[in-house]
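Let us work through a complete example step by step.
Step 1: write down the sequence.
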Amino acid sequence: MLQLVNLSNDISDVQMIKNDARVLEALFQSHGLDGLELMLCQPWNPELHRREWIHGVHLRFWPSWLDFWRERREELLQQFNDDAAIAAFYGGLTPASWLTVCRSNIRAAAAAGAKYAVLHVSHSRMSEAYSRKFSATHKEVITATIELVNELVKDIPDDMELLFENLWWPGLTLREPELVALLLEEVRHSRVGLMLDTGHLMNTNTDLRNEEEAIAYVIAVIKGLGSYRQAVRGIHLHQSLSGDYVKKCRTAVANGRDLADAMSHILRVDEHRPFTSPEVRRIIDYVEPAYLVHEFIQYSWDDWMYKLDCQQAALQCRNRAYA
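Step 2: predict the structure and record it as tokens.
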């Protein structure tokens, strides 16, 4: 099992590591880590994020995309106001233009030498993120994802695993085994699998009260996949117990055009906190992943190290002192 951390090459993350590969190298050595799952937000710098450290790449994600893919122009104008805003969000005004953006991201992942690429399988209009009264069904999002990926599959290297990540919006939640089967069987790539996101799965159950309940829930859902549980190749490990907040927000009136407000809400739902209970080891032992990613939102270097230390201690990983 490779033990990784998530990071992007956005300017904020570059500044956090002082634009210095030695900072990352020291982190890997001090915490017994094998490298990165990297999100490419700008061109890859191999001198900073060295090729030998990049085991996975998290592909770009558009939280709301189904209306664009289905070319529902009037609905898009309700959400974005005008064509300029639509084009800015998707990289153009047509699905073909968006596919070009997606292909560029996949090719960048391949150039960086990623062994796997992660793709979110989910869709929610911004206003729906509050109420959870969704306009799309899980199957509609899964079906559209199959269409999308099959348009892109020729750009995915044969030796790169494509791992589909669960969320709590319509799409891949992992709670419908028949939809997991549909996705994995219909995508025309030779190496497909699942990236279990524990926090996202916890967000599908707003009644969870503590880590121990959440751990039992995660294991029960994965067990419910039957033979398809073998498709879980990696874990994004973190926890989110935001059920009380979500219940309060269901009656909130959201500004459907305010992306910043929607993203602030999403971060309160999807907390990305470290596990602290030693019971979390049960998830790792049950799934036996090839990739374990300590996935957090890093607000600062100290914040990142605190979260990583907490979770490694819960897992009883070797956690040496760091400079």
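Step 3: interpret the result. Confidence is low (pLDDT under 50) at residues 318-323.
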